[in-house]
Design brief:
The complex is a heterodimer of chains A (about 300) and B (about 325). Chain A has about 300 residues and is α/β, with parallel strands linked by helices. Helix content of chain A is about 30%, strand content about 10%. In chain A, helix 2 links the parallel strand 3 and strand 4. The chains are: A alpha/beta (about 300), B alpha/beta (about 325). Chains A and B meet through strand 2, helix 5, helix 6 and helix 8 of A and helix 8, strand 10 and strand 11 of B. The complex binds iron/sulfur cluster (SF4) (5 copies). The site of one iron/sulfur cluster has 12 residues of chain A, from helix 2 and helix 3.
Amino acid sequence: MTNTIDTSIYAAITEAIQGEARRILSEGHVSAVVGYAAARRKGSAQPVVITDAVRAEELIFSAACVNNLAVYLTKAKKEIPKTGKIGIVVKGCDLKALVGLMGESQLKREELYLIGVPCAGVLASTAQPAQELTGDTIAPKCRECDAHLPQECDFVPDRQPATPELAGKYRAEIARLEAMTPAERWAYWKEQFKKCIKCYACRQVCPFCFCEQCLCDRNKPQMVETTPRPAGNTAWHIVRAMHLAGRCAGCAECERVCPMDIPLNLLNRKMAKELKELYDYEAGFQVREKGPLAMYDEKDDQSFIK
Amino acid sequence: MQKFISQQNLGHLLDKLIADGKRVVAPRMEAGTPLYGPFADSAGIVLGQLPRRSAKETFFPVCEDIMSYGKEGQQVTLTDVNPARFPETVLVGVRPCDAAAVPVLDAVFSWDYQDEFFLERRQKTTIVGLACTQADDACFCTAVGLSPADPKGSDLFLTPVEGGGYACETFTEKGETLVNSHKELFGEPSGAPALPLAEPQTEKFDLKKVKAWLDDHFEDPAWDSIAVRCVGCGACAFLCPACHCFDIVDEGTEKAGKRRKSWDACGFWKFTHHASGHNPRDLQPKRYRNRIMHKFKYYDDKFGQTLCTGCGRCIRFCPVGIDIAAIVSEISKK
Ligand code: SF4
Ligand code: SF4
Ligand code: SF4
Ligand code: SF4
Ligand code: SF4
């Protein structure tokens, strides 16, 4: 098949991850390693937390390792005791979220041991876990990836990932939506938001949705209608998109997990595009104190205050 | 009663029902996603894939108003919703795993409190089930004692046959009424063999053994290893044909508003969050434990039934790959 994407390095990466995890656990450098393990369904993988070096052999990397494991290091996940240094398997796109979390003082670099993965891509949510990685089954985010090789990790298996040239879908789709009239665009999103059932899977997997209590869950007073109806759904999506503006680093987890196929990353990418144009800012590359929307500068444009 | 209906006549049947003023609900595409929903003509019906959400929403909508209120000066008015106005409905193309969940839900919605919203819709709905010809490795209806040809919950059941069309069998009076009122569209059984049915690969669970283990292991380290990765969303419960928890909230202003009932899920942190601030299910493994306990122990204790039909939706759409079939199978081996 012509559009097969070469993932042959994933076997060697799996071996390297296992070796490194075994070493850092048995030598006591870390108290736990968050990674991926094979699951029951053919070809599938799921997140796993390992504290015993003997279990390092369970770790894998494959095109089914879709999750951004950074979510497990946030304070939203109290199940994983964050004592001592924690090892974590990261793809380039996941690393951007970790960098963002460090910038927001949620994590300290010295408390992490980063096992970076040279990554050619992972499967789209529409693919079955056992499917081969091709131009058709690859996740949309991987089509426009700029982080195949994660930088500044503590350990990266020495492999060069295939970096296939694929046409970007988000850019084209955003251009299509931008060309619409506001009424057409409103109609498009209304149709999409109508499907939302407020399962909050998008929020729960997002590394940046780490609030102790989400404003959208409040009922005393109710800030946003909690019921899945048109008004409350639209409000929820606006809150979500705005709270992620300038922070979202594009791991596209929200979109991947949405059981209603709502293209959430289009909102994220559009926000990112605006941030780039307005502030020449891109999230996830540098550990910064504050993103542009959380910062005040006297030179900021004030003309919108009337 | 055994009959045959051609593909074309099935379309005519739906169109006639719609013309008669019935609400016809069947799988169709909604903004790119297959969902059960009401429609205006039979053209858009999509029978080839399992709808993303289950058929439960026909009886138990994602969100519904149950009362409205208004306040003018000292005068408060409360207006109830009148369930008698719910329309007669025919629900078509329902997979066995979805149809079988409906009688399971009857038990809880007509237990100590008669939920008129559910029961009125239930009573007014005729369910036309459809045998399943395609399974993936998340399907496990056979493991919980059902099958791709199980008519449980269906009033009329369709099995696709070779050469096109469906063998029909009625199982209730509602099913017979449906056939008898449109006799001209049904023929005698054609004798054509059924198309090969789906073959879910999972081995049968020993549900008694599973329950016996659950009876004794409310506290067990296994819960941590199973659910430490669970992120606490509502995807599994919301897509499930058998999950039935709901929340009730008042929304609106001081002057006017609605009381609404909408889906809730035990995976959510706030599900058991007390007004005092205390949360007895403070960590995710305790919440996920409830999911398994409710489905394979509590519901059995209370109603003698299992709260899972093996549709596999929660497996396919769990953001972190939690696999209830793998978990239950492991428990049955303990
Ligand atoms: S976006 Fe890049 S780093 Fe992330 S999974 Fe896709 S190819 Fe790998
Ligand atoms: S994951 Fe999808 S359906 Fe669930 S709350 Fe988010 S947008 Fe809505
Ligand atoms: S628990 Fe999962 S597999 Fe069982 S009926 Fe519910 S969604 Fe389907
Ligand atoms: S499993 Fe959870 S969400 Fe589902 S019905 Fe039971 S308590 Fe409710
Ligand atoms: S099991 Fe999966 S779908 Fe269910 S609450 Fe946990 S993460 Fe969400």
